Amino acid sequence: MPRNRQRTTAKVAWTEEDLQSAKTAIEGGLSKRKAAKSYIPFTTLRDRLKNKNMSNPRLGRKPVFT
């Protein structure tokens, strides 16, 4: 009997509200590292602030067929 497949990527552990809260905290004077400990992972926060890409998070590969 086949075993159940384990998900290779974790589900997103943060929400858009967490991202907005982290952004406002940084604008208020909190460092990125401290905001990352409270809200979302540091690399995610850095990438979202650097690229101004505030869209919804996506997991996995891009679809082949459009």
UniProtKB/TrEMBL annotation:
GO terms for molecular function: DNA binding. Residues 15-54 form the HTH psq-type domain. This is HTH psq-type domain-containing protein. It holds the Pfam family HTH_psq. It is found in: Nucleus. Its main location: nucleus. GO terms for cellular component: nucleus. InterPro entries: Homeodomain-like_sf, HTH_Psq. Signal peptide: none annotated. It comes from the Eukaryota.
